[in-house]
């Protein structure tokens, strides 16, 4: 039940999108978002939408899964759209009381909603097709140049990797302890705020105790394997950019750049 | 007393991680019965017993407690939780109070019992689980692993459930710790007349204490009956990677070697008696 709320769950697979180098996927997402934010014309919008549709269908991620991820964001999307409907100046179509709805407003609201939906969907597509460990590793590698200016990139990456590794474990544990206390009559669902907060004690105390125990065990296990920080550390599975990554990167980035430039300069666009 | 009919449960429904943990499983335990539930890891034992007190809602099938469907409209789920006491696997990780006494009192308090009644329940539960009265004021985090586990079991016994369900209560304990826990559970049943459901993957545990056995394999019960009925179907048990208790295997081997010994003994004591009986004649 708690599992249902995990954001950005990973759906293992073997499609082209799954096999792309996580670093390439991250850069692509970044480029995609830039293009999306720069798009300001139905044609450029149409292009990024087409691009997203094609990647989603190649990844074989079900649309229903994608929409499930969107649901928690629905409020923000609707809120943004409504604001845009009412607060865009222009020729009023309908007026009532202090509100007026303009054609420009409707158009802008639709574009804003579409933009948010695409932005969130693209981000989910990355987390759905890339394991959390691969993601944090990729981020660390992309940021590694910062190590030159004494940013502790390795330490941050290790912390992130460990945190990601233990999120499912902790969620599972929370579920288990919650059930164990429910079996003893604990009630997490009713009562006022104060009562509910108090009801969490039987859940939080064992959870913290076990988190510290796990941290201890992990530290010992890491030391037993001679972990001593990032210096001189090599890895067993070296990721490498394959031809498909280079292709995906160059074509996509070129296309996005084209769209952005065209969109901004308005060349050839009516 | 407690009856589960045709339960189906699927974890992670509509995700790529779908697992059918129960597939048309029946289970029942009558008043005062000591029922063993056995199966290899992942066969669905824990999932099945979490249905018995309503922690999981079956995707199909129903659970009857004293003839009433526990998911019926208007049924009081908390009442079910107190009537069917469930001890999870490794229950020592659920302890949270400052003292052992307070932790055991959590259930009785949730039931809304008076202070005096709660104290009485705590004292009684500690006695049932062989915890000395001097431990009541200690922090549960200062106890040994075996003691912590008994505190957790006492926390459920203190609710005086009519059905006590235990998920692998002897996992990870040494032989004397196992024996001790099983003896305490037997005492609880003998003195209160409660029904007990014991989940385990140890045939020896089952042979020592259970009246009936249900064998679960791949989300379904495949055998059910008295110890004799189930242990006489050795080929079914070995087929799913289980076997009869080790002493019974010794007796069966002796028989195969031509010694006319009764192979229907499942505990060491009974086996010794069976072998002595051969020598006598
Ligand atoms: N919380 C859960 N989420 C997803 N799958 C689970 C969960 N708990 C158990 N399972 C799966 O359900 C099946 C039965 O598990 P379980 O009932 O724990 O078996 P047992 O107690 O006999 O070892 C296993 O395949 C297990 O992986
Ligand atoms: Mg289990």
Structure summary:
The complex is a heterodimer of chains A (270) and B (281). By secondary structure, chain A is mainly alpha-helical. Helix content of chain A is 69%, strand content 3%.
Task: Name the ligand types.
Answer: adenosine-5'-diphosphate, magnesium ion
Main structural class of chain A: mainly alpha
**Order of strands across the main sheet of chain A:** 1-2
Tell me the β content of chain B: 15-25%
Q: Calculate the mean pLDDT score of chain A and round it.
A: 85
CATH topology of the largest domain in chain B: Rossmann fold
Provide an overview of this structure.
The complex is a heterodimer of chains A (270) and B (281). With 270 residues, chain A is mainly alpha-helical. In chain A, 69% of the residues lie in helices and 3% in strands. Chain A folds into two domains: 7-130 and 240-265, no CATH class; 152-224, no CATH class. Chain A contains eleven helices and two strands; from the N terminus they run αααααββαααααα. A two-stranded antiparallel sheet of chain A has the order 1-2. Chain A starts with 15 loop residues before the first helix and ends in a 5-residue tail after the last helix. Chain B folds into two domains: 2-240, 3-Layer(aba) Sandwich (Rossmann fold); 245-281, no CATH class. Chain B is 40% helix and 22% strand. Chain B has helices at residues 45-52, 77-83, 100-104, 106-110, 115-128, 145-157, 175-192, 203-209, 227-231, 234-239, 246-256, 268-280; strands spanning 2-11, 19-29, 34-38, 60-65, 68-69, 84-87, 163-167, 195-200, 212-217, 220-226. In chain B, a hairpin with a 2-residue loop joins strand 9 (212-217) and strand 10 (220-226). The A-B interface holds A 3, 9, 11-12, 64-65, 176-177, 179-187, 201-202, 205-206, 209-210 and B 12, 14-16, 50, 53, 55, 78, 81-82, 85-88, 91, 93-96, 106-107, 110-111, 141, 155-156, 159. The complex binds adenosine-5'-diphosphate and magnesium ion. Magnesium ion is lined by residues 45-46, 89, 167 of chain B.
